[in-house]
Amino acid sequence: MTALLLFDFLITALSQQINTQQIPFDTIVIFGDSHSDTGNVYKLTDQIWPRPPYFQGRFSNGLIWVDKLGVSNIMNYAYGAATTDNSLVQSIAWSQVLPTPGVRQQISTYVKDSNIITSNLNRTLFIIWVGSNDFAYNRTINPSLVVASLSNAISDLLKSNIKHVIVFNLIPIHLMPNIHALNQESYYSAMVLQFNNNLSNEIASMQATNPYISLPNGRLFSSEIMSGAF
Length: 230
What we know:
Layout: E1 3-7, E2 27-32, H1 40-44, E3 73-76, E4 92-93, E5 98-99, H2 103-113, E6 124-129, H3 132-137, H4 143-158, E7 164-168, H5 177-181, H6 185-209
Parallel strand pairs: 1-7, 2-3, 2-6, 6-7
Antiparallel strand pairs: 4-5
Helix pairs in contact: 2-4, 4-6
């Protein structure tokens, strides 16, 4: 049984310390960009980027939501600056000179490196959160193409017979200070709206072809995420 959950915004509970006994997962596997990166780009650059005031390799001035999940076994494949798929839009970090894996490439690495056959997929939660960098690196791209790219990545993961997936949509990135400074609020606001609407429709389509996919209608937002950067 696959539970594919779409949250409109990252639920507040994920930004708070969670009691391990309250969640039915031993392992959480994460794919995404700087909102979720806890040090992968930092390691890739030999601890050069991101530098202070960013905190210990995170694109934040402190701990991020991943650090507060309360699960000891977290496999984090997220890279700052990641896009949905490098074959659509190349992910480039560290002053746009360092290629990084897109989410589809992250999923491919996970499938190749991990022993899914022996994993307890009933106790493993997969989280995917990506999309904003596709628009940052390609100002002419259509949101429907980005959603289709993300859908392909999700499909790659579902082929491994996983059981539980959460796919986050985009937060209102047009409210971030760096976007405001660039005077690009209108562009990002429109892209986020179209992306989220298209993603919701795509997940609904997946539901239609798989009776075991569920789709809760949550609209929760954590302002803590706004401290993140691309």
